[in-house]
Amino acid sequence: MAKIGLKNFYYSVATENATTGALTYGGATKLAKAISASFEPTVSDATLYADDAIAERDAGVTGGTLTLGIDRYDLTTAAALLGHTLGTDGEMVSNTTDTAPIVGVGRVVTLMQDGAYKYRAVFFPKVRFQEPSSSNQTKGETTEFGTYEITGTVIPPVDGNWRKEQIFDTEAAAVAYLVGLMGAESE
Fold first, then answer.
1. pTM for the predicted model, two decimal places
2. Alpha-carbon dihedral angle through residues 108, 83, 162, 112, given to the nearest 10 degrees
3. In angstroms, what CA-CA distances link 179 with 110, 115, 120, 144, 184?
């Protein structure tokens, strides 16, 4: 299947049960329009050699880094993803003691197979975003659009299921799958 598009970034703040580690979500919220998404897994790879041969090998994903390119970075979203305070007057205050919450994050990748569109919904159940770097540039003779990136750490939940994904025939079904994983939509 060829990848030909990217849409529908959603997130939901998660609550983690202190005893069981189970995650519950507060409802899916549209993040922003999707520009790019990349996931770089962190892989643990250990090999035990005995009698001049591999006796044991253990390799697995232990987490990773998720970077999302978005078209806008509004203060409501920033406060929700980074744990900052948003006042009723619209002012966001970032404090040294702020802690980014755990969130579930999903996206839809548009695919083409044998001339037919398919939609791959990808969900990371436990992500913690970090403060993005910022760089700005003056306008020159021609306009250049600047966009935003936000990066988070993918953390395997207690059950070990660090990613869920499914392929659908319609975009609506893929979005419904993501929203269903995160609880009711709260756009």
1. 0.89
2. 10
3. 17, 27, 14, 34, 7
Q: Is 63 exposed, middle or buried (0-12, 13-18, 19+ CB in 10 A)?
A: middle
Token pair listed for 27: 């409802």
**Which residue is it, tokens 């990613």?**
163
Q: Under DSSP, is residue 35 helix (H, G, I), strand (E, B) or coil?
A: strand
Count CB-CB contacts under 10 A for residue 114. 6
Distance CA 185, CA 36 (A): 23
25-64 pLDDT, tens per residue? 999 999 999 999 999 999 988 888 999 988 888 888 899 9
pLDDT of 185 strictly over 60: no
